[in-house]
Each structure stands twice: as structure tokens, then as C-alpha cells.
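In this supplementary section we document a worked example of the pipeline. Step one takes a protein sequence of length 91 as its only input; no multiple sequence alignment statistics are reported here. Step two produces a three-dimensional model, which step three serialises into C-alpha cells for compact storage. The input and output of this example are shown verbatim.
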Amino acid sequence: MKKLSMITAAFGAATLIAAPGFAQETPPEEAAPTEDAATPEAAPATIDTDGDGVNDAWDQRGDGKADSWDTDGDGAPDAFDQDGDGKPDPK
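The serialised model returned by step three reads:
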């Protein structure tokens, strides 16, 4: 039992002695990018599909065509184009 305690103490002491050396050998971290450099992800473009002056669809794929629609006027999409044909899919 004494050998295990001595080995544990020796390992602990060696770790404490070596720890400052490891800290000095690590390269400095690069500066974190500023918020100006970070580009926030743009929200999907809204589209007025029926010409009434109110945006009622979203271009979530970024292809210039609507792929989700607000058919009930609550401001949230409720019809979607899953197959990519540019028209709302049947429910």
C-alpha cells in the first residue's frame, strides 16, 4: 500500500512541476473576430405573390421563387413547396 501512495505522490508532484512548462509551450490563441467581421445570416426574402402590397410568401431557398406562403394572413407560413415546383403543395 505504501508503494501506491508514493507512486501517486510522485506522479502528482511531476504533474505540478510540468504544468507551467506546458502552459508556456502552447501557442497564443488568435484574437476573436469582432462583430463587424461576423456576417449575420440573412433572413429569407419576402415576396408579394398576389400583388396586393403585402408580402405573403418567403424565398427560403434563395432561388428567387416563393417556397412558403401565408395563406391565412397571420404572418406565419402555412403552405409549403416541398417538391420545388414553385407552387404550394396540397395539404
